[in-house]
Amino acid sequence: MRQFVLLAVSAVLIAAATGGQVYGSILNPSFETGTKSDWTVVKTVATAMSEVAGSYTSTFGSPVYTYLPTHGNWLFYADAGNAGLGLSSLTTLSQYFHVADNSSFTLDVFFWANLSADLATVTLNGSTLWSKSATTAVWETVASPVLSEGYYTLMITVSNEGLFPSVVGVDNVVLTEPPPVTTVPEPCTLAIWSLLGGVGVVGARRRRKAA
C-alpha cells in the first residue's frame, strides 16, 4: 500500500513540475555576444557588409550620421552591397522563434539611405511592420501586434538599387511574454497527500506496538 501511494505521489509531482507552459525567446536580442550568433544573414551580393559593432557612422555625404547602441555595447548594421549599375541587391537578417499566447516584441532600427529607391523593412511572417526609403536621423522603435502562440520569423531587410548601398541598423529586440501559469493542486492531489500522511501515522503506530 505504501509503495502504491509513493508512486502515485511521485506521478503527481512530476506532472506538476512539467505541466507549466514552456516559453520561447528571441536569442542574442541586443547582439551583446559581440557576434551575429542565433541570427541568419543572407546576402545576394558577396561584398555586402553585415557587422556587429559599437557604433555606425555614415561613410559619405552630408550630414554625417552616427548611431550608438540603444541597449548595451553593440548594434548590428548591414548594407546590400553593389550588384552593379542598374541591378538590385538585398541583405536580410532573420530569426525564427516561438512565443506564448498574448506575447509581443519591440526592436530599434535605423536606416541611412543613399538613394530614395533603396528600402529598409521589418517584417513578421511576411507582414510589414516598418518600411523606410529615407534616412532616419535617430533610431526608431518598431512594435509588433499582440501575438498568438506559435512560431514566427522576424526579418529585417535592406535593398540597394544603385552603386552606393544604404545601411540598416538593428538593436534592442525585446520580447514580452505573459507570466508562467501557476499550477494549483487539484483536490485529488490534496487527497493523495492526506493519504500519505495517514500511511505515516499507521506505520508509526505499528512501530510503537512492536516495541
Q: Kindly state the percentage of residues in helix.
A: 10-25%
Would you tell me which CATH topology of the domain at 40-176 applies?
Jelly Rolls
Lateral arrangement of strands in the main beta sheet: 1-6-11-8-9
Count of DSSP H/I helices:
2
Mean pLDDT, as a whole number? 82
Q: Order of SSEs, N→C? A: HEEEEEEEEEEEEH
* CATH architectural grouping of the domain at 40-176: Sandwich
Radius of gyration: 27 Å
Q: How much β-strand is present in the residues?
A: 35-45%
Helix and strand topology:
Layout (H helix, E strand, L loop, with lengths): L1 H17 L21 E4 L6 E4 L2 E2 L8 E2 L7 E5 L9 E11 L4 E9 L6 E6 L2 E6 L7 E4 L6 E11 L6 E10 L10 H24 L1
Antiparallel strand pairs: 1-6, 2-5, 3-4, 5-12, 6-11, 7-10, 7-12, 8-9, 8-11
Helix pairs in contact: 1-2
Overview of the molecule:
The chain has a domain at 40-176: Sandwich (Jelly Rolls). The chain is of the alpha+beta class. The protein has helices spanning 2-18, 187-210; strands at residues 40-43, 50-53, 56-57, 66-67, 75-79, 89-99, 104-112, 119-124, 127-132, 140-143, 150-160, 167-176. The protein is elongated. A hairpin with an 8-residue loop joins strand 3 and strand 4. Helix 1 runs antiparallel to helix 2 (187-210). The strands form three sheets. It has a five-stranded antiparallel β-sheet, with no helix packed on it. The longest helix has 24 residues, at 187-210. It has two helices and twelve strands.
